[in-house]
Predict the 3D structure of the following.
Amino acid sequence: MQVVNERIEINSEIMLGKPVIKGTRITVQAIVEELASGYSIANILEAHPRLQESDIYAALKYVSEVIKNEKVYTLAS
């Protein structure tokens, strides 16, 4: 198990190793997809009572860090 931060963990035995909110099976991906679909933070918290608002912000920070560290290569055409 890898603890990414105080709220997110990666464990190969939980959700096939996708990053999840610690102590849940709620993936970072699910949270971001719900936000992208127009769900408000209040909607997400209502749908997932085990989540806290800080979990949603931790998921967004995680995604931001992944994108920030992403390497992009341009292919010659």
In short: Residues 13 and 21 are 14 Å apart (CA to CA). The chain has a mean pLDDT of 93. Helices lie at 28-36, 41-47, 53-68.
